Amino acid sequence: MASTVSMEDFEALLNESFEMDTPEEGSVVKGKVIAIEAGQAIIDVGYKMEGRVDLKEFANPGEAPEIAVGDEVEVFLRSAENARGEAVISREMARREEAWDRLEKAYADEERVDGAIFGRVKGGFTVDLGGAVAFLPGSQVDVRPVRDAGPLMGLKQPFQILKMDRRRGNIVVSRRAILEESRAEQRAEVIGNLAEGDSVDGVVKNITEYGAFVDLGGVDGLLHVTDMAWRRVNHPSEILTIGETVKVQVIKINKETHRISLGMKQLQDDPWDLVAAKYPLESVHMGRVTNITDYGAFVELEAGVEGLVHVSEMSWTKKNVHPGKIVSTSQEVEVMVLEIDGAKRRVSLGLKQTQRNPWEVFAETHPEGKEVEGEVKNITEFGLFIGLEGDIDGMVHLSDISWDERGEDAIQNYRKGDMVQAVVSEVDVEKERISLSIKGLGGDKFAEAVGGTKRGSIITVEVTSIEDGGIEVEYEGMKNFIRRSDLSRDRAEQRPERFSVGDKVDVRVTNVDAKTRRLGLSIKAREIAEEKEAVEQYGSSDSGASLGDILGAALKSDD
Fold first, then answer.
1. Same domain, yes or no, for 387 and 428?
2. What does each C-alpha distance from 150 to 124, 125, 147, 154, 288 come to in angstroms?
3. How far apart are CA 246 and CA 264, in angstroms?
4. Do 165 and 204 fall within a single domain?
5. pLDDT in tens, 257-295
6. Which residues contact 108 (CB under 8 A, 6 or more apart)?
7. Domain for residue 187, yes or no?
8. CA–CA separation, 239 vs 456, rounded Å?
């Protein structure tokens, strides 16, 4: 019985010994290199088990393998025996297991890890972290986009682990985080040595539309385009190039955000200090058009001194026209200083003030009554606009087109582009208005015709037309109409047909209407006036003489 127990104990001890000493598949074991042949290392892992490992598994990315006979190495035992009776081992898997243990600890402690970029993949790069492969996103390579990552390939450098999942075998790292951390430390040190107002040298690192970034030795400052020069700078590339060394002044430092504002013009004399003395009001100067907007044009008087010519001050005659149709960029123009605001650093300039007011010139050279000729520029419901000298317009009102026709009818005889003659009737320089008259060309026919004719005068007219309602007559070239009721004192004689065209008839002027330019004429009024005059001269109603006697005596006296 004792012998049996002794044998069982021995067997148990033996099995326990085998379990403790025999390597377990799927674990990392130590081995010794016993030979190197055919690009492989033969490794003895104990218990008469040997395996083969490709030499490339002993090399870091981009490096030659470092392995020699007699070296002790750790390998991963995948299987104790294959078909050839050899152990299936892997150095790479052993390194991976070792690396994951090390990386998990570094990740937990937020420590940096060393690695080398060895390949490109979609969206980034692969990094060897000493056995474990990690993904480096393209956005995490540098603080700024990297166009060429070639110089970084195979270079051993620190990385920060952002995320890792051992079960899925995923590791995400960042090189940018390391750079930003060291950059922040460097920035803090550099900023600590700077003060507002300091003049320092820097290198232009980047140029944008709104300015340039200047490296001050580990920290970047922004040189805004408005602080590059006293003059207008449309784009920083006009005066700066990348890599150029420039002297700048520290304008402002934000200790919290570590942002630095720089200036170049602050190191130069401010031209505005002498503006008031150099450019007195109403003085005229030459300048260059630098920019054109909807509301005017900017004109540079000298470097750093720019004024605005408002659209209303650009031309005497071109109203509601875009400034770009009057001047062009880089054009040299003559301008007058209208106003200076030193506090706001503004100069108001005038372009039209350097030329004489064309309405003043026209008034001097074209007094009222002078004849002019011009082209019909526009036709409106109230008159014609005629182009005149000096690129200005004059207007002929409807009432000044014709003596004989209504204005609405007379204007129908004109078309755009017609050349017409007129006389100047009025010039208002302040309101920039010129009134013209076409009907005034031949003088006032009505005034010339009536002359000293007054109401009650007896004139001789010629019958030109017989109408049902009366007769049309002409006096000194003017047509008038005598109604049927005014053809005779005697109702029986108020017949138009008793007259013939060409008859000469004496009539009495009953009205002179200068507005309508018509004479009121009446044969009846003439006869009544003659009768009254005869009664007063040759008799009275008390004398007993008949009207026929009186008129007969008057006629006899006339004979």
1. yes
2. 13, 11, 9, 9, 49
3. 8
4. no
5. 778 899 998 888 888 888 888 889 989 999 999 899 999
6. none
7. no
8. 92
Helices (H) and strands (E) in the chain, counts: 9, 30
pLDDT in tens, 92-147: 676 777 778 888 888 888 888 888 998 889 989 999 887 788 999 988 888 778 77
State whether 133 and 54 are in the same domain: no
> How many structural domains is the chain composed of?
6
> Do 405 and 464 fall into the same domain?
no
- Judging by DSSP bridges, how do beta strands 284-293 and 296-302 pair with one another? antiparallel
Mean pLDDT of 362-382: 88
Cβ-contact 136, 89 below 8 angstroms: no
455 Cβ partners below 8 Å, 6+ apart?
509, 510, 511, 512
Quote the pLDDT of residue 451. Answer: 63
The domain boundary, picked from 267, 291, 307, lies at 267
Pair 421, 376: CB distance under 8 Å: no
Q: Are the C-beta atoms of 58 and 91 separated by less than 8 Å?
A: yes
Strands (E), 208-343: 211-215, 220-224, 245-254, 259-263, 284-293, 296-302, 305-310, 332-341
* DSSP run (H or E) holding 276: helix 275-278
Residue 19 lies in a domain: no
Query: CA 439, CA 170: separation in Å to the nearest integer?
Result: 100
| Domain around 243 | 194-267
Residue 24 carries which DSSP code? P
DSSP 101-139: HHHHHHHHTT-EEEEEEEEEETTEEEEE-SS-EEEEEGG
The reply to whether 460 and 534 lie within a common domain is yes
Neighbour tally for 169: CB within 10 Å: 11
**Range picked from 56-60, 167-171, 412-416, 442-446 for highest mean pLDDT:** 412-416
Which tokens is 76 given? 């991963």
Are 211 and 281 in a shared domain?
A: no
**Burial of 388 per CB tally in 10 Å (0-12, 13-18, 19+):** buried
Same domain? For 386 and 325 the reply is no
Copy the structure tokens of residue 39.
């690009």
3-state secondary structure of 551: helix
Instruction: Please check whether residues 295 and 332 belong to one and the same domain.
Output: yes
Could you tell me the two tokens for 304?
């750093």
**Domain boundary at 124, 156, 180, which?**
180
Domain-located, residue 76: yes
Q: Kindly state whether residue 500 falls inside one of the protein's structural domains.
A: yes
Half-sphere exposure of 105 (CA within 13 A, CB side): 5
Contact 354, 284 (CB under 8 A): yes
Both tokens assigned to 389: 């000298």
Q: What is the CATH number of the domain that holds 480?
A: 2.40.50.140
pLDDT for residue 105: 87
Sign of CA dihedral 66, 69, 75, 81: positive
Give me the phi and psi of 259, to 5 degrees please: -95, 135
